[in-house]
């Protein structure tokens, strides 16, 4: 009855002539209609509030466990070097068939046997490659210059190189928190005790015939410290493009 009444009056242009609305004796029925509408709106509001609370709980949980999620993403991501190079030659068609012309039979050509082409011998260089990003510099102690990638934290970097977050913070002259992508971080390699070590920053050589002593003078730092922590002598020449550890005495 309510649906038919709504179609005739409430949902049409005749709502002002609704007998329930105009008849004071039917006030109770009018209140029932209003109460039903309020209950429906209340249910919708409660559902919206519950959905919003659920989203807030999920977002809070993701924020709390963000390090666990990041560690799971980068776990086991060790670089793999190929040990075997194979250059198989592409096989030709198994048979070439010539079309039949004026009664001549089609002739099938034999398929060639695929062969493996041996690689030419590689010349080995006697020059020791320069240490780059991610390669240990020195031996006692040894350090690594690490470029930060998206999603990395000090926790991930310290576990990768066998050290601690505290040790990394203690030896870097400047270290943004949180880490910026592409920032260069000096990392202790396989040790945690950094007591007595200087502060480090990273420098890339952009000139030819630049010695350790000359660069130290240019940067106003101690040449002996630069030579020691880069595992070089003071008169040795840096290569153009080489990454260098610049040591600063603590004050």
Strands, helices and their partners?
Blueprint: H1 2-10, H2 19-22, H3 27-64, H4 66-74, E1 143-147, H5 154-161, H6 165-171, E2 184-188, E3 199-204, E4 210-211, H7 212-219, H8 223-229, E5 237-238, E6 243-248
Antiparallel strand pairs: 1-2, 3-6, 4-5
Helix pairs in contact: 7-8
Structure notes:
By secondary structure, this protein is of the alpha+beta class. It has eight helices and six strands; from the N terminus they run ααααβααβββααββ. It has helices spanning 2-10, 19-22, 27-64, 66-74, 154-161, 165-171, 212-219, 223-229; strands at 143-147, 184-188, 199-204, 210-211, 237-238, 243-248. It is elongated. It starts with a helix and ends with a strand. Residues 76-106 and 123-129 have low confidence and may be disordered.
Can you tell me the overall shape?
A: elongated
The largest beta-sheet arranges its strands as 1-2
Low-confidence stretches: 76-106, 123-129
Q: Give me the secondary-structure category.
A: alpha+beta
Query: Helix content range of the residues, please?
Result: 25-40%
What's the N-to-C terminus distance? 89 Å
Tally of extended strands?
A: 6
Count the DSSP helices. 8
How would a textbook summarize the main sheet?
2 strands, antiparallel
Overall mean pLDDT? 78
Q: Which H/E pattern describes the elements?
A: HHHHEHHEEEHHEE
Q: Approximately how much beta-strand content do the residues carry?
A: 5-15%
Give me the Rg, rounded: 38 Å
């Amino acid at each position: 009855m309510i649906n038919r009444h709504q179609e005739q009056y409430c949902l049409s242009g005749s709502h002002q002539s609704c007998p329930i609305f105009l008849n004071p004796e039917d006030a109770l029925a009018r209140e029932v209609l209003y109460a039903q509408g309020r209950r429906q709106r209340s249910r919708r509001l409660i559902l919206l509030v519950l959905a919003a609370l659920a989203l807030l709980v999920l977002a809070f949980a993701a924020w709390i466990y963000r390090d666990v999620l990041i560690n799971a993403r980068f776990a086991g991501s060790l670089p793999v070097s190929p040990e075997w190079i194979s250059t198989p030659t592409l096989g030709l068609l198994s048979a070439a068939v010539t079309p039949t012309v004026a009664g001549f039979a089609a002739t099938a050509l034999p398929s060639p046997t695929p062969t493996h082409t041996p690689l030419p011998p590689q010349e080995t260089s006697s020059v020791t490659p320069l240490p780059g990003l991610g390669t240990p510099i020195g031996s006692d102690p040894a350090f690594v210059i690490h470029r930060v990638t998206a999603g990395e934290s000090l926790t991930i970097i310290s576990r990768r190189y066998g050290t601690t977050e505290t040790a990394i913070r203690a030896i870097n002259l400047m270290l943004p928190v949180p880490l910026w992508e592409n920032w260069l971080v000096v990392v202790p390699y396989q040790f945690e005790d950094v007591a007595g070590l200087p502060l480090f920053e990273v420098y890339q050589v952009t000139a030819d015939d630049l010695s350790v002593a000359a660069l130290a003078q240019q940067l106003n730092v101690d040449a002996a410290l630069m030579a020691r922590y880069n595992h070089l002598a003071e008169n040795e020449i840096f290569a153009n493009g080489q990454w260098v550890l610049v040591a600063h005495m603590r004050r």
